[in-house]
Design a protein that fits this description.
Number of domains: 3
Number of strands: 10
Distance between the termini: 58 Å
Radius of gyration: 21 Å
Order of helices and strands: HHHHEEHEHHEEEEHEHEHEH
CATH class of the largest domain: Alpha Beta
Largest sheet: 8 strands, mixed
Structural class: alpha/beta
CATH topology of the largest domain: D-Maltodextrin-Binding Protein, domain 2
Shape: globular
């Protein structure tokens, strides 16, 4: 039997993979159902069928929500990237010879938690443009390596987009680069953790809490928690254990659901911090050398639509 054909034939159903990816990204069957326009029961059924097909659980069903198993954590980023590439391929096809289309590649976390809530303002100002957002897992920086939220090819910062937002040291030879915003990291959690038998009142109290980790790293390439705790002068906190997620969005959702304390960028937790779903209990914010940059090709940088979107991004960041 042809090996490639056999692999294709034994792939799980596409609907089941889509259901799992959406549920894992939102950490919620209900939100996945809303995105895919089906019922939560249908999502649950699809995920259960996928788990049976793979012969292993992908979620742990908890009283207060969901948590990915090690198998689920391994599957999610590659599956998300695969769906992203499929979507990008279709969008690239649709964009051929289309005028008035502006394709924007943005880091996934920033796209969902910072850009999306603001994008309506740009659309209202420029109704003549068809804006297409490619939420990318690739946060790439040539020569400096990957700061920890992507795995892209450093020679292709735009990923077939007209303009991109990237996280790194801003080293993109042959491109126009504008610094969008500097970032820092600080612990964030549900306000529920500030009360109860073991209230989180001081950094030392983190020793009694579940620490939530994601794949963003500190300037030296190490994890964020040890760097922040060192800056806070706190010892005796076990940073080797806790919940681990492959993406900052998942870590922040887990923190908002009361599963523990995440350390992340306030810019990514902005809407939840504003609504009170998340709180930043400590004043100490650890600045990162890496920052968000707006990147565009030199030959397209002054194109009217690209310049308009870049100027709007910079103005929005200045107001943040």
């Amino acid at each position: 039997m042809d090996t490639k054909a056999h692999r294709t034939a034994t792939l799980p159903p596409l609907n089941a993979l889509r259901a799992f990816e959406a549920a894992a990204r939102h950490m919620s069957f209900a939100l996945a159902a809303k995105e895919l326009h089906v019922t939560p029961a249908a999502i649950s059924h699809q995920v259960k069928g996928l788990e049976e097909h793979l012969g292993r659980p992908l979620f742990r069903r908890l009283k207060r929500g969901l948590a990915l198993t090690r198998g689920g954590e391994a599957l999610l980023p590659r599956l998300s990237e695969g769906f992203g590439r499929l979507a990008a391929a279709i969008e690239a096809l649709r964009a051929i010879d289309e005028e008035g289309t502006l394709t924007v590649s943005v880091a996934t976390s920033l796209a969902s938690r910072w850009l999306a809530p603001r994008l309506h303002r740009f659309v209202a100002e420029h109704p003549e443009l068809d804006v297409r957002i490619n939420a990318s897992t690739r946060l790439i920086d040539p020569k400096k390596g990957d700061p920890g939220d992507g795995d892209g090819d450093p020679s292709m910062p735009l990923e077939n987009a007209d303009i991109a937002v990237r996280f790194g040291a801003g080293d993109y030879p042959g491109h126009r680069v504008d610094k969008l915003m500097a970032v820092n990291v600080t612990p964030m959690c549900s306000p529920m953790l500030l009360e109860g038998k073991r209230p989180l009142l001081a950094p030392a109290d983190l020793a009694q809490q579940v620490l939530i980790h994601d794949n963003v790293t500190y300037d030296d390439g190490g994890p964020l928690w040890p760097a922040w705790l060192k800056a806070a002068g706190v010892e005796g906190v076990d940073v080797a254990h806790g919940l681990r997620f492959s993406h900052a969005m998942l870590a922040l959702e887990a923190a908002a659901d009361g599963m523990g304390v995440a350390i992340s960028m306030p810019v990514l937790g902005g809407s939840d911090l504003a609504s009170g779903r998340l709180v930043a209990p400590f004043k100490l914010a650890l600045p990162l050398t890496f920052a968000y940059y707006v990147v565009s090709a030199i030959d397209a940088a002054e194109r009217a639509d690209v310049a308009a979107f870049r100027d709007w991004l910079l103005a929005e960041a200045a107001k943040s």
